[in-house]
Design brief:
Chain lengths: 109, 115
């Protein structure tokens, strides 16, 4: 079956680095996405990976290994505003996205 | 400000009642989607539309219907609401159904409670 696994919750300290992992088992693969969702708000796009390797965008980086069915989102220099849920999603075909349940990230001062 | 507008923001509904959630976008995107988000589960696709005049079923379409009369509007209708349809509903759009990064733009959500 189709499955996306992410940790339910993580805690990190302001100014530190945190890595949020995502493993997937899908019938196909046509790209992996990370979205950020603050409580009570809409998800917003963070990153897209379709080839193996690291994509860097400011304080955020996303890594993909297709052979391992694995991705991570790396957040550096954590700020309080980074407290949110981070959603991993895989596009398994032309359009269908399979979503993980999300990782709630709590930032402590 | 360009984006997606959903209405209502929140609604409490008696079981058996008919309800339409409205969604309007002003980005001239071709593709639009309706998702539901439930605690502990990932977003699940209800219906989608590739372009005006066409719609398709997603992962959990039962009990819901959609229409796409024009590019901007994509309403979701619950013909006879049941308590299991209590959820947060997100409308989203993208330039194409499957283009490049396929970035989705989401509305702010509609919280629906069916009693």
């Amino acid at each position: 079956g189709q499955n996306i696994d992410q940790p339910t919750e993580m805690t990190a300290t302001e100014g530190a680095i945190v890595q949020i992992n995502c493993t997937y088992q899908t019938s196909g693969f046509n790209g992996l996405f990370w979205y950020q969702q603050h409580a009570g708000e809409a998800p917003t796009f963070l990153s897209y990976n379709v080839l193996d390797g690291l994509e860097e965008k400011g304080r955020f980086s996303s890594f993909l290994s297709r052979s391992k069915g694995y991705s991570y989102l790396l957040l550096k220099e954590l700020q309080m505003k980074d407290s949110a849920s981070y959603l991993c999603a895989v596009r398994d075909g032309d359009y269908q996205l399979i979503w993980g349940a999300g990782t709630k990230l709590i930032i402590k001062p | 400000i360009a984006g997606i507008t959903q209405a209502p923001t929140s609604q409490i509904l008696a079981a058996g009642r008919r309800m339409t959630l409205r969604c309007t976008q002003d980005m001239r995107h071709n593709a639009m989607y309706w998702y539901r988000q439930d605690l502990g589960l990932g977003l699940r696709l209800i219906h989608y539309s590739n372009t005006a005049g066409t719609t398709g079923k997603g992962e959990v379409p039962d009990g819901y219907s959609v229409s796409r009369a024009n590019t901007d509007d994509f309403p979701l209708t619950l013909a006879s609401a049941v308590p299991s349809q209590t959820s947060v509903y997100f409308c989203a759009s993208s330039e194409r159904l499957a283009e490049g990064t396929g970035e989705l733009f989401f509305g702010e959500g509609s919280r629906l409670t069916v009693l």
